[in-house]
Design a protein that fits this description.
3-stranded antiparallel beta sheet, 43% helix
Amino acid sequence: MKKIATILAILIMSSCSEDFLNLVPESSITSGNFYKTEDHFNQALVGAYASIRGAKGSIAAWTMGEMRSDNTHLEFNITNRGPGYIEREYTDFFMDDVNSGLVANKYNSDYIGIARTNEILDQVEEAPLSQEKIDQIYGEASFLRALLYFDLVRYFGGVPLYLTAVKGAGDAYLPRASVNEVYQAIIQDLENAINRLDPVSFPQNGRANEGAARMVLADVYLTIKDYPKAESELSKVIQMGYSLLDNYGDVFELSNKNSTESIFEIQYQQGNQGQNSDFLYPFIPLSADVSLITGISSQNLQGGGWNTPTFEMIAAYEDGDERLPASIGIVEGTGQIGNMFIDELKSPVNYVPTPGKRTYPFIKKYLNPHALERNTDDNFPIYRFSEALLSMAEALNEQGRSADALPFLNEVRERADLDPVTETNQQLLREIIERETRVELAFENKRWCDLLRTDRAIEVMNANGVYLKEFYAGESYLPAMSYNVTTERLLFPIPLREIRIGNLEQNPGY
């Protein structure tokens, strides 16, 4: 899918009906006069795909999915204490603002996409289209709805479960469903999608296919710890023709968008159509001149210093791991936080800070050539084939079949130029798989959900807090109450507006 647009781009009809009894003007786009042709449904699907950007490719996504974890932190900027900056410190586990715009944006983005998919699903089976087209449209919409509900349930717990389009006030304010009910709806949607979607074919076009649906379903089963079912889905994905690219860094090159390693990714396109990505820029330092990084005349004073890899994260890579220099770069320079004077780019491999210089590690995966400031062509990965292999290793190890897990784990390690693992002790191999997953999928908004899924979030993040408080001791901005992670902080709060208008019960602790 080369271009993403919304339904709002549909051309308004200019003619008027002579039948004055028609209560819906022909110039108005409604569900009654819109869902009539294949083109109409494709336009609606594009709008549903576009909603994934706000849910899984936005500031909220990487703040809540990556900065909440031990992979990244932030460059604390005392010169700007505006609400938008303070909110991103939510990740330090001491803020409990139920009126957070950041959290509300993610919650609302998911439901916007769900509303769009519900309209499609309500209309498509009665549309005057071939059964083949109906199946494909139904499958894609079911896949997208499942993906969005999977996002919601992991970050917020049980949420209102809207499975048909809202037609009136009586439909608009549903109570929170249980976590189990949400997961059952997700599984049903994905099974429907699998039965209707096209098989995987290459080159891919960015739209959902059977492989993407099975991968999400496998992730769901891993999350609810149904390892035999996860194994079953992953075994099918692994046989669908996906493959690892030869070099890890190649995965993120623009020429390899939707490659044989891609299972599903958010589509972007640079240019003046409003379809561009820009997530490189929040990840690099605040500076009046970032051209040494970007390769073009550019500044970054409006926003940067976020999602910064920690040195503990850098140390998580084994010696010789080719993923380290492909994933992380280091900037050195002078000047205060808020306007760094960048004078050199360095590799993180065996890095030794230069005395008298400021050091800023940054995410390098999304650094690609572009012509316009904050207008990049990078897609954002949601699932890659390497995750399928590592998930299979996890599913097998959790079933006590550690030796069977090794080929899948080692296929990923071999691409990174690392020695194969021979360990078959279940607990030790569990730790190896966790570390391997961390570095392979670093900065792809996976780590926080992985810590939740493996019941490691409290232990890991409290330990990370000890590390950060020591590392930033001289800056004294992390209060003593920060990083006191408890069960109540494993979910984010339901946005206050939703609590008030829907009479919803808030998550414990908020």
